[in-house]
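Please check this.
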Amino acid sequence: MSVLKVTKDNFFDVKNSDKTVLLDFYADWCGPCRMVGPIIEEIAKENPHILVGKINVDEQQELASAFSVMSIPTLVVLKGGEVVNKSMGAKPKQQILNMIEV
């Protein structure tokens, strides 16, 4: 499965997904975000049971604010529409996978 571009228009469906959701809050100009990007893509391809979405904080300021994103990259894991894990800063693949398995 590929990474879904998440906007305020499709966020309701993403939040209410039956799958575990991994959200990557990022910006195109952010160096650490560009480091995490390929890892997020890899996780999406290798784990079809997870809905992986990317949220551009410059374009989706309302969503960034709703999740209290203060620095990027910020990764958020949702299960049943609720935040079960949140992490700021670039992380290696295994740490991101560990966040999902909570």
Q: What stands out?
A: The chain has one domain: 4-100. The first strand starts at residue 4 and ends at 5.
